[in-house]
Amino acid sequence: MQEVLGCFQERLAYSEEPMEDLAGEREMRYKKKENLNARPYWKFAYGKRKTFKGHENFHHRGDIKLVGKENDMQECKECHRILPLTAFTSGSLRSDGAYYLKKLCRECQTEMEAEKREVRKNAPPKSEVCDCCHEKNNLEIDHIHGTTNLRGWLCTKCNSGIGSLEDTLEGVLQAAIYLEPNTEKIIEKLNEIK
User: Fold this and answer.
1) Does residue 60 share a domain with residue 22?
2) Which residue has the higher pLDDT, 9 or 171?
3) How, if at all, do strands 99-105 and 88-93 pair?
4) Does the pLDDT of residue 3 top 90, yes or no?
5) pLDDT tens digits for 123-174?
6) Total number of domains in the chain
7) Could you tell me if 118 and 128 lie in one domain?
8) How many CA atoms lie within 13 Å of 105's alpha carbon, on the beta-carbon side?
9) Residues spanned by the domain of 21
């Protein structure tokens, strides 16, 4: 307040403008600044407005904001049934505060967690190196899905890589043939590794 009064007094001393005009001018300047500050932050970013994919496509479960409309359906990645969104639990958080839903239904998620607990309970002690690449990385348990049979201890890279190839020898061999079309070289390399 003192700053405003000081500004008026200073301008009155050097000017013959009436007091009302000064007050109105000061008010207009303040409104301009207010309007600039009221702009959403994303309008300043690289000159374009950021929008979120499907920003209006969400619903609430209690206090939790979830991606997708309440009456939408989703396919379970494990059992391949098409179920309502209520059959899925919340997963990772999106930048606008909504949660993505997990790709596994609650039933499959529960079975998978029980399977993992059983495998961990019966697992041998953690090895020093990855059973696949023989490097000292973050090791995790690898097991045959649908059973409690442990394959071994793998690093995160090897476990996710083999998982991406569908945990099958056929998938790994197809990748090997893609990298090296000459199968004789693949056989030579296998003999070297053994």
Assistant:
1) no
2) 171
3) antiparallel
4) no
5) 999 989 999 999 988 899 999 888 889 999 999 999 999 999 988 999 999 9
6) 3
7) no
8) 16
9) 2-38
- What is the pLDDT at residue 62? 87
Residue 96 in tokens = 């606008």
Reading phi first (left if > 0) and then psi (alpha if -120 to 50, else beta), residue 85 is in: alpha
CATH of the domain at 116: 3.30.60.130
Q: Is residue 43 part of a domain?
A: no
Residues 6+ apart with CB under 8 A from 176: 186
137, 124 in Cβ contact below 8 A?
no
The region that residue 68 occupies, defined by phi over 0 for left and psi between -120 and 50 for alpha, beta otherwise, is left
Residues 112 and 128 in one domain: no
Q: What are phi and psi of 186, to 5 degrees?
A: -65, -45
> How far, CA to CA in Å, does 170 sit from each of 35, 51, 143, 174, 176?
62, 42, 17, 6, 10
Sheet strands (E) in 62-125? 64-67, 73-75, 82-84, 88-93, 99-105
